[in-house]
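Shipment paperwork, digital attachment
Item: protein structure file
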Amino acid sequence: KDETLSFPKGVAVSLDAGQMIRLEMHYINPTSEDLEVQATSTFVSMPDAEFKDEAGFLFLGDPDIKLAAHSSQTLGPVFMKLPSMVQGVNFFGITGHTHQWGTNVSVAVSDSKNGTDKPIYDVPNWSWSEPETVKADPEFSITANGGFKFSCEWDNKSPDPVKFGESANDEMCFFWAYYYPSHGFDVGF
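Attachment content:
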C-alpha cells in the first residue's frame, strides 16, 4: 500500500522540466462494475550542492513461465551474469515481482554461475501484492564474472494454465535492483 524508497546520501534521480512519470499498477477487479483506482507518488528534491551520483535501475527476470492449472511450481535458480555496463556499481536496493499466483521471489549474488550464493533478497512471508523493497546494508557490488541468481515460486490456484505476460491474469518473474552511479536503464532476460 505504501512504499518509501530512500536513496543513499548524495544519490538521486534527475528529472527534466516537464518529465513524464509513469506509475504502473496491477489490479484485478473481481466485480462486474467499473472501479476507479488511484495512485500517488511524492518526490523529495535534493539541493544541487548535495547531489553526487545519479541513481540507476536494473530490471532482470525470466519470461519462461508455464504454470499448469492447480499446481505449484518454482523457476530457478536462474543465473544472470551482470551486464558489463553496470560492473563496479553500488547496489542499494532490491524488489521482487510476480503477479497474483506468486508466493516468493528470492535473489542472491554469486561470483559465477556455479559459485557460492550470498542471499540479498529473501523476505519472510513475501507478498506479491506488497513486495517489500530490501535496502542493502551495506551496499554491494558484483565481481566481473559474477551476477544474480534468482528464483520465483507460484501456486496457480486457477483451473487454467498460466503463462508469462503483462496482464494481471498472466505471470511474471522479475526483480529490480537500484544502484549508482547510473549507466542508464537496463533490462535483462
